[in-house]
Amino acid sequence: MSAGGTRLTLVRHGETDWNLQRRIQGSTDVPLNETGRGQARSAGEGIAGVGYSTIHSSPQARALETAGLIAAVAGLGEPDTHYDLREREFGPAEGMTDHEIALRFPHGIPGQETRDSVVERALPVLLRLAERHAGEAILVVTHGAVISSIVRRLTAGERPAPGEAVFNLSLSHFEVADGVLQLERFNVSAQSLGGAAQCQDADGLAGDSSPAVSLSSSSKAEADAPQV
Predict the structure, then answer these.
(1) How confident is the model at residue 227 (pLDDT cuts 50, 70, 90)?
(2) Catalytic positions
(3) Domain that holds residue 205
(4) pLDDT value for 191
(5) 39 by DSSP, 3-state: which?
(6) Does 228 reside within a domain?
(7) Residue 74: CATH number of its domain
(8) Distance from CA of residue 107 to its chain's centroid?
(9) Using only C-alpha atoms, what is the Rg of the chain?
(10) Backbone angles phi, psi at 140, to 5 degrees
(11) SS3 129
């Protein structure tokens, strides 16, 4: 991280029963299952002592419980919630499996929230948090489509690659400097934290080769399958 920059780590929530069933959650408030709670506690152990100063979350139950469990294990304070970090809305597809969606909506889901809309509501929250916690490292627990939408904007649609999903309790590391968000590492395990070789992973992206994202950028890839 450069001098004066803010490390911002986006964390996908833990597993839910709908994840197991490959059902699209979106705005539906699905709780964590026991596996998801264990994932959150394990992530908290990996995060503890690394130097994060604060934790923030989407208000949806699966994200907020994940944040609370991480905070309890890692010794962070109570998570602050931010409405605009909620999951992408999938309209009539919510509750359906990915197979059912492919059969019923072969040409796209009518009325689903666009990825650009997700970025345009979530990115200002992240930039405000980075400004508020300048020079610190902060955690933000959110959702797969929020993370992938931001990364897709950042990489002009190259990541996530076809078939590449943001996995439960993965970490995606960003730096914010001068009001600009830049990707450092994408979709890595909490257990990879610590040491000089922080977050070395086959899916990692080097910070010095990653482009930056701002509200003026636009996505090249709008059509994509929703992540379960």
Answers:
(1) confident
(2) 13, 87
(3) 6-213
(4) 75
(5) helix
(6) no
(7) 3.40.50.1240
(8) 26
(9) 16
(10) -135, 115
(11) helix
State CA 89 to chain mean position distance: 15
Length of the chain: 228
Integer Cα distance of 63 and 213 in angstroms: 24
Q: The whole model's pTM is what?
A: 0.87
**For residue 75, what pLDDT is reported?**
96
| Domain count along the chain | 1
10: exposed, middle or buried (C-beta count within 10 Å: 0-12, 13-18, 19+)? buried
Name which of 81, 67, 80 is nearest 169 in CA terms: 67
For range 161-167, the mean pLDDT: 93
The 10s digit of each residue's pLDDT in 192-218 is 764 323 333 323 333 333 334 433 334
Q: Mark 51-73 as b/e (b = at least 16 C-beta within 10 Å).
A: ebebbbbbebebbbbbbbbbbeb
pLDDT in tens, 80-114: 999 999 999 999 999 999 999 999 999 999 999 99
